[in-house]
Amino acid sequence: MSHIRLRRTKGPAPIHGLLLALMLFLGVFAVANLGHKPRQKATHRTRLTAVRYTPGVPPVPSPIPSTLPFSIGESSGVLWNLTSHQLMWALHPNLEGAFASTTKLMTFYLVYHHLALSRSVKISALAASTTGSDIYMAVGDKFTVRQLLYGLIIASANDAAVELANTVSPNTQDFVKLMNQTAQSFGMYQTHYQDPDGLSPGSYGSAWDLSIIAQQDLQIPLFRKIVDTKEVSLPYNPDVSNLNELLFMDPSVIGVKTGWTTQAGFNVVFEARQKVDGHFVTLLGILMHGQNGFYPVDIDAENLLNWGFAQVQKTDHHTLANS
Length: 323
Known about the structure:
Elements: H1 14-32, H2 44-47, E1 76-81, E2 86-91, E3 97-98, H3 104-114, E4 120-122, H4 125-128, E5 142-144, H5 145-154, H6 158-168, H7 172-185, E6 204-205, H8 207-218, H9 221-227, E7 231-234, E8 237-241, H10 246-249, E9 253-261, E10 265-276, E11 279-290, H11 294-321
Antiparallel strand pairs: 1-2, 1-11, 3-6, 4-5, 7-8, 9-10, 10-11
């Protein structure tokens, strides 16, 4: 804020001094409120950054509840109430670690916004030779962008990630630059991408940052449809099952993404929607760096969701009792 310099003059008469003081007070009040507008609902991009922090500096949300009435086996996580835009729980939300296949949340976002879904893509040797989770591509096979996006998320297909990245950009390196630029624009200051699939431990970030890109994707109807799909038929691979076991465990869960590497451990991004006291509530959770398989992480996710919905119900009841 610029400072207003006042020229020194001889002392005013008493009544004039009072008027001058009043004018100065009103002027300062006007400057302080310059640009102030009535409070509005946060936009999608700012929803998950409601806890204030300085741009370029890792966020340290405080105060937030960090204890639960049960133990969990992960080293980092967050739980958001997307309906009220409130951070409900966090455990070391700024802890940096490998993303593994949750990296593909950014890959999906960029592909969706840069390519036509009906575009035909011929599979390259680079994509066909990519290791890890795949949808059994061969050089010269043809897929649409839409089909590759289904494979990218449901089967966590690394070959699909590489092919899509090299369709958006001239090469993988340019696509990775775009990933990092977009992450910065979203306020994902602890995130650094090194590949489009998450195989590299150089693709890393925090649970806080994952909640930001997840919320960006969840605004996209196609993404919501894909992550809630249990099985899909793709060219050359008619039976592709979703790797997110939470979808099969809990009917209220509607996604989102899993990821595992030796360096990352087991990461799960999950969203669920339930009716609480007559209105729907949506919770978004992140759990990172589990060490004993996806099943223990999924159980922790279920416990976290149950606790979260119970907290919403308690809050509703308390509000009604005091209204």
